[in-house]
Specification:
- The protein has helices at about 15-40, 45-50, 55-65, 70-85, 90-95, 95-110, 120-125, 130-160, 165-215, 215-230, 250-270, 270-280, 285-315, 330-340, 345-380, 385-410, 415-440, 445-470, 480-505, 540-555.
- Helix 4 packs across helix 13 (about 285-315).
- The two termini are about 25 Å apart.
- It contains 20 helices and no strands.
- The protein has one domain (about 10-515, about 535-555): Up-down Bundle (Sodium/glucose cotransporter).
Length: about 550
């Protein structure tokens, strides 16, 4: 899949004063939220986790907005123009099950242990080695991913509005820096709620007008079935083992590679997402956060898929040598062709909001991990709480500046979406295997966490940079290499953890209470407060999960 690194030059949008006014109002509101949230920041817990005080509907919408970056919007529309309805797998197979698993199974461990970050949980479950390594890897990955969002924003804005790349990078970086520095995580989360609705306001008119242009869903389906084949408009057609399909993957690869390894690795251990749930006001709200987010996730796929399918009808040769338009141009092309001024301003604002949401999620999680897991634990320990709030603001500025630097590093990669998946296979998948084994196997020793994480990350990198890049093993594409790297990282991490555990001492049982499945936290010795019972004893929460999973399982097979 091509990334939005080179949009067609002729896609310059006919924006006017009305569109820029809408954009200006949005930026003013963003800063206003930052100033309003500043008054609520009195402690480090307020700055880094919103004082654990936010309602579930706020954290749920922020959870989904943090993921709904414009790299996903443009990339998944491009995916649809190239592969068709197979794009649904990235949502219904590659997201929903993992989100439900996070809410029902993993959030009690995260929230119940009162950790402030994902790496801090590894400190409690394993030792300082696992904690420090995971914190360093996550902080590094967060800055790289924030830079990807900034660079993608710059190239889109340059193509659509004519702004130079460096101007777009600096302007977006400044606004993200301003509102996170002012209001901490609360500012980021409330802005993400706003950004979620702005993104919907941009995508809904585009999808509706696009469908109207091609004769509705029936007209769209008939046109693409005739030109691209019947499998192009199905989720599972042609995915039998040994069968050919536009995606080039069978059902086993989709379910195991995307649906398990990469999906669970991302959604359950990526602190940029988990941080939103940790800011909820109680365990019940924390568990409902990913479940609430899963409902719009089920349907958002239509808003990113339909524009790609419409573009494939309107520009039959899109993405081929016979067309000036690449797959990544699908949404910009429809914006130029279908949207009037005013609505066009909302659409441009929606794209900018999406980029800023993705960057802000990574920057806010970076400042928390660097301050609480690295600086306060290993560099400057035991200082007053106000010091760490001040340092958190300082490291936020440093993180944004570093993101601007890595934005230009992303220029060297020809495929930004593949680059993101590469980072996930390096950093999220090894973390996931350490968490899963640590949470479900009491015998996993203190030392196994560090060595499992190191082995998984190393194996994924060796597969990508040595076996794949040096053509030692023939893998047809970057995306395929990412799947293999993820599997290699998962297997290597698991094998090393088991081997190390067999030869090193396990953690004392009394120190594992509330950290391993089947144990009870010392703080839960008394009857739990309403809403804090185990997930399997709460019919309402199970109902949320069941409805989400049922919808996610039913919809794909209806295509």
């Amino acid at each position: 899949m091509r990334s939005p690194t080179q949009l067609a030059a002729e896609l310059r949008l006919p924006t006017n004063w009305l569109d820029y006014t809408i954009l200006g109002i949005y930026f003013a509101v963003v800063l206003g939220i930052g100033f309003a949230a500043r008054s609520s920041v009195k402690t480090s817990l307020d700055f880094f986790l919103s004082g654990r005080s936010l309602p579930a509907w706020v954290t749920g919408l922020a959870f989904i907005a943090a993921n709904l970056g414009a790299t996903e919007i443009l990339g998944m529309a491009a995916n649809s123009a190239q592969y068709g309805v197979y794009t649904t797998h990235w949502y219904w197979i590659g997201a929903i099950p993992a989100m439900v698993f996070l809410g029902l199974v993993m959030m009690p461990f995260y929230y119940g242990s009162k950790v402030r970050s994902v790496p801090e949980f590894l400190l409690l479950r394993f030792d300082k080695g696992a904690h420090l390594l995971s914190a360093i890897l996550f902080a590094f990955a967060a800055i790289l991913i924030a830079g990807v969002n900034l660079y993608a924003l710059a190239i889109v804005v340059e193509a659509l509005l004519g702004w130079p790349e460096w101007v777009a990078i600096v302007v977006a970086g400044f606004f993200v820096l301003a509102y996170i520095t002012l209001g901490g995580l609360s500012s980021a989360i409330y802005n993400e709620v706003l950004q979620f609705f702005v993104i919907l306001a941009a995508l809904i008119p585009l999808s509706v007008l696009g469908l109207k242009k091609v004769g509705g869903w029936d007209g769209l389906s008939d046109s693409l079935t005739e030109s691209r084949g019947a499998d192009f408009m199905t989720s599972w057609g042609g995915t039998g083992i040994g069968s050919d399909n536009p995606l080039g993957a069978n059902w086993l690869t989709i379910v195991l590679g995307l649906g398990f390894v990469l999906s669970f690795g991302y959604w359950t251990t990526n602190f940029a997402e988990v941080q939103r749930a940790l800011s909820a006001k109680n365990l019940s709200a924390a568990q409902r956060t990913p479940l609430i987010a899963a409902f719009p996730k089920i349907f958002i796929v239509f808003l990113v898929m339909i524009p790609g399918l419409v573009a494939a009808v309107l520009v039959p040769r899109i993405g081929t040598s016979g067309s000036d338009l690449q797959y990544n141009d699908a949404i910009p092309y429809l914006m130029e062709q279908l949207l009037p001024n005013g609505v066009l301003g909302v659409a441009v604002t929606g794209l900018l909001a999406a980029f800023m949401a993705g960057m802000a999620a990574n920057v806010s999680s970076f400042n928390t991990v660097f301050t609480t897991d690295i600086w306060a634990k290993y560099v400057v320990r035991g200082r007053e709480d106000e010091y760490y709030v001040r340092f958190g603001r300082l490291i936020t500025a440093i993180g944004v500046l570093a993101s601007i630097g890595t934005a230009f590093l992303a220029r060297s990669f020809s495929n930004i979406m593949a680059y993101l998946q590469t980072l996930f296979s390096f950093f999220n998948v090894p973390m996931f295997v350490v968490f899963v084994i640590g949470m479900f196997w009491k015998r996993a020793s203190m030392k196994s966490g560090f060595w499992g994480l190191l082995a998984g990350t190393t194996a994924a990198m060796v597969n990508y940079f040595v076996l794949y890049k040096q053509d030692v093993v023939g893998i047809p594409s970057d995306q395929g290499a990412n799947f293999v790297s993820a599997i290699a990282g998962f297997v290597a991490g698991a094998v090393v953890m088991v081997a190390v555990s067999l030869f090193t001492a396990p953690k004392p049982s009394e120190e594992l209470q509330g950290l391993v499945y089947g144990t009870t936290s010392p703080g839960m010795a008394e009857p739990p407060a309403p809403g804090d019972e185990a997930w399997y004893r709460r019919p309402a929460l199970l109902g949320w999960g069941a409805v989400v999973l049922a919808a996610a399982c039913y919809i794909p097979f209806s295509f």
